[in-house]
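Much of what follows relies on a compact textual record of a protein's fold. A complete example follows; check for yourself that the lines match position by position.
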Amino acid sequence: MWQSTSCCLAVKQALVSRHCGTDPSCSRCGAEKESVNHLFFECPAAVQVWTLSDIPSAPGIFPCDALYNNLDYLLWRAKDNNVPEKKLAIFPWILWFIWKARNEKVFSNKDIQPDASLQSAVAESESWALAQLIDSSMDESDPTRTTSTRIDQTPTLPRCQVDASWVSGNHVYGGGFVLDIYSG
């Protein structure tokens, strides 16, 4: 969600504005521009996912043509309108599986149906909720309970970060990289 609100998500409209492609159209529906809001809330495939979900639509309010209004509805307004939090808890997974379906179309030319995206989102949401339950048999006051030791999480492999840019029509470009080598 952070990437979508900070213009960092690699939708086609953003890529074209960064000179990383020439076609800003939506791969799934052919709309003129694939913006973040279009991808998640206006594309017919996304609209169908939201329609199939238990999150109630509010005509003219959700989904709409403004990204921040849509996220505002999902994060706050729906709760104010007495939509149970349990119904709203799935929305990050819905966004994630809409994104994954879009990428399947872009990179593999594979169409993921909206109902399959929703089923995957529901399954992941339920798995995550189940993983958050604390087993009452693992009471912290139990003296036989073993404690885990913290393992050093410093990466042992080198990491390379790369970036480049150019101006359309110019044969000159700029590029660079940073190589981090952790030796402990």
Observations:
- Residues 2-131 form one domain.
